[in-house]
Sequence to fold (618 residues):
Amino acid sequence: MTESPERISISTTHTGSDMLEAIEKFAPGAVQDGVVDLRRLAELSGLKVSGTEGGFDTYGLLWAGKSKAVEARRAESFASLAPDAVNSMDWDSAENIFIEGDNLEVLKLLQKSYNDQIKVIYIDPPYNTGSDFVYNDDFSQPLQHYLEVTGQADSNGNRLVANTEVTGRKHSNWLSMMYPRLILGWQLLSEDGVMFISIGEDEVHNLRLLCEEAFGPSAFVAQIPWRKRTAKSDVPFGISQDYEWILCFAQRDFLAGASVERKYYQTDDYLEPWRTADLTKQTSGAERPNSAYTMVNPRTGVEYPHNPNRAWSITKDTFDSYYSRGKVIFPGDYEFLRISGPVYRVFKSEDDAKALAKHGSTTPMKSVSTQLPKEVGLSSDGNADIVKLFGTKVFSFPKPVSLVKHLLSMVPDKDALVLDFFGGSGTTAQAVLESNAEDGGSRRFIVVTLDEKVAEGSDAAVAGFSTISELARTRIQKVMHEPIIVSGHAGLKCCSLAASNFTVPLSHDSSQQSLLLPETLNTDALDDSIALEAFLKSGVRLDAHWSRCQVANESVIVAQGVAVVLARVLSDEICQGVLGLEEVHTAIFLEDAFASRDAVKANAYFAFKQANKTMKTI
Fold:
């Protein structure tokens, strides 16, 4: 069969694919014919299978609709993000991101570019008090759900519904809304990342159980009380609920610091303690051709081909150097290590040095008390933050900026990438910007907020705002123009959830088989929208700097060494011109632009392969 360039999928990757890959890597034989063999997995791990001994009762959190919440996490998304250059500040070079849209869809879109990239997540989700709003995810009709989310169809009901007791499933509906979003957010955290979640008394108990279900009990760090107001006397029974809570969960390396939780070994051949680490990178061999090779154990001659989706983290040229220094461990080198392929050896001194350089200490989190200082402020201080910027209370009771700044200060990484996918009025963005101005840091943010309409007659409506997202974006822009911040804010890239720029096949809906269409570029798609989608779905981060050039009078946009070629009709001249761009290692062409030009496509693919570069289409 003739070789051809990879075609980038318009849909997001199944969110369980990484887990399947990990099972196959660390538990060979546990997956057979697409089915997990739990008994084999138990044998390899030394653990028992739940339900096989002592009856079928197991500990866990169950609620009505849980299975659909699991489906929601796994379901593919066919949406994209549309650039909003008008409201952006220095789009091409901006490193702060503001996204308007349903965070469930957005989190799926971020998986390929930001997996293991986020250091801090802070969210202030709906508290489920009966008067706030939650996301009513209807998973029974995925096509209709997609059409509503991307604005392609008009639904009679708004996707935001008041979560009142009338449904009879107040807590279940809230848990179903939170579960997939928490899982997807957790997958974005770096190995030393941390998540803070503000929550009220209505759901704090359920949220902690839900997080332990989603992340594992060992990820729990603390339940921090935050005093939101001083006591009042005119309350039922004389008991005033003056506190809310901040749940803190963290990835293993965050908790471990240099050595607390990590499993270190001390052996006769190396007196210094060491641990193992993954020897692959989350990038394909096509993107790192020097790292796409068959690794051979010099001692045994056993060969280990690279994973097509993950290249080795050391190149073929540097393998001998790493192996001679004892940095590469093969199966069989140590009887106590159960590994199916080569792994990397990391010495404790290397962990300590890395932590010290990054955090100023060998632990990634400052030692602090769960008793928050008074400086973090009350709810009234959050109102004051808003009034100071807008002159009126256009948003009621946002978290005070000082509270989020305090949480950020607990993570001594001044380069942290911070995500808030329940962005509300934009408090997190302001906290990041002010923290940088105060300590010289270079933290960056990604804020996602829904385009929820403001109430008629509210201060926000009177001030001219139609949605909360519009208010949040304006708040961020105002803060960026503050004198102490304006010179170092690193810009703002605004975008919104939208339909893909390509016609999406409807094969996932059996009732729509007669409507099957090939993926093809929409005729009204704009260049920047196409480029943003191509970058996002090929793994280029949203905060990557864009550079623009012309090749044979056709527009090309480059970011992180990836070029998106926007020519609607391709020729040998254009393809050769793109091949000659020195900073480009991967070029993405429009599949439609090769229509009736098979020879041009074949010539280009061969030329890129010969030049040790990657060619893709979308």
